[in-house]
Write a structure and sequence with these properties.
By secondary structure, this protein is of the alpha+beta class. The chain folds into two domains: 153 residues, 60s Ribosomal Protein L30, Chain: A, CATH 3.30.1330; 98 residues, no CATH class. It contains five helices and 13 strands. β11 and β12 form a beta hairpin. It is rod-shaped.
Length: 309
């Protein structure tokens, strides 16, 4: 796991479980520390170089160093990483602070670093020398998340989590599967089931070779019913007069077929169900329909009677 350190954060972790990274220094100074079975990394804001503010930072650094149990001073190694020559004064302050506590340090110029385990040792690796440089942009975690295997200490009121990782361009964006009308959670499922239940009454053998047509025809008629404001169910399906290509839905005791409540069986492909399901979802939302709740038959039934049966 990789966790990115934000501005004025100090994180500590077990190097066997976690890498700590930071970058984008721009006047700030990163301090990577390796100790006895522990690692630490902080991203110190450049305002800490101010003589008036440094005492407050020093106090917080002392508290963090004690809290994170990196080991005895002789066991700790520190690397100061900076990207801007103007960071020299801040490096001086941090270096003096470490020296006063018996901790050896060195300076490196780079835009970031990683503190991690390499074989049996913990090391501080410069970002420019890191073969996995994309790790600083993609796939890392930040302290905005809960239950991460790190300890955190804030050095100032400005302390905050690092910016969220970018979407890895090589990782496909997950696409949510549409809820189909065949699923009971679809808001128009009850209407669809009512239509589907009438299909075998048309011609029991009609869909034997292409059973998917049952769902496709029922889905098409469901959309037509919703367009007409009908959402509770149908009473019967029937072919048009001298026309076995077209199936009509009858509702509300009507005696003739309505031109707007029909579907041409041979114009529907086996891939129409997802399309109809999405159309039905949108229309159901407009009609205020919700899955699992009883609905009343819509009063609106637009369109006139045409083709007799």
């Amino acid at each position: 796991m990789r966790i990115k350190v934000g501005l004025d954060e100090w994180l500590a972790a077990d190097p066997k479980q976690t890498d700590l990274i930071t970058d984008g220094l721009l006047g700030c100074v990163a301090v990577g520390l390796t100790g006895k079975d522990r690692i630490g990394l902080t991203h110190v804001y450049d305002e800490a170089k101010d003589e008036a503010l440094w005492p407050s930072y020093q106090e917080k650094l002392d508290e963090a160093l004690q809290a994170f149990r990196l080991g005895e001073p002789k066991d700790i190694r520190a690397v100061l990483v900076y990207s801007d020559p103007t960071s020299g004064l801040l490096c001086d302050r941090i270096e003096d602070w470490l020296s006063q506590r018996g901790i050896h340090s060195e300076r490196r110029m780079d835009d970031g670093c990683r503190v991690c385990a390499v074989k049996q040792d913990a090391v501080v690796r410069d970002k420019s020398a890191d073969q996995q440089s994309s790790d600083y942009s993609y796939g890392y975690r930040t302290t905005i998340e809960d239950a991460l295997p790190v300890e955190r200490f804030a050095l100032s009121a400005k302390a905050g989590a690092a910016t969220k990782a970018l979407q890895d361009p090589d990782t496909p964006v997950p696409v949510a599967k549409p809820i189909l009308l065949t699923d009971a959670s679809h808001p128009a499922h009850r209407l669809f089931a009512s239509v589907l239940g009438q299909i075998d009454g048309l011609a029991p053998s009609m869909f034997t070779k292409s059973p998917y047509w049952k769902n496709e025809v029922a889905a098409a008629l469901t959309v037509k019913c919703l367009d007409a404001g009908i959402r509770d169910g149908v009473e019967k399906l029937a072919y048009g007069k001298d026309d076995t290509d077209t199936v009509f839905a009858l509702v509300g005791g009507q005696e003739g077929a309505r031109h707007d409540l029909c579907a041409n069986v041979f114009e529907l492909g086996e891939d129409y169900l997802p399309v109809a399901s999405e159309l039905a979802r949108v229309k159901s939302s407009e009609l205020g329909m919700q899955p699992g709740l009883p609905v009343e038959h819509a009063q609106t039934q637009q369109g006139g009677q045409t083709k007799g049966m």
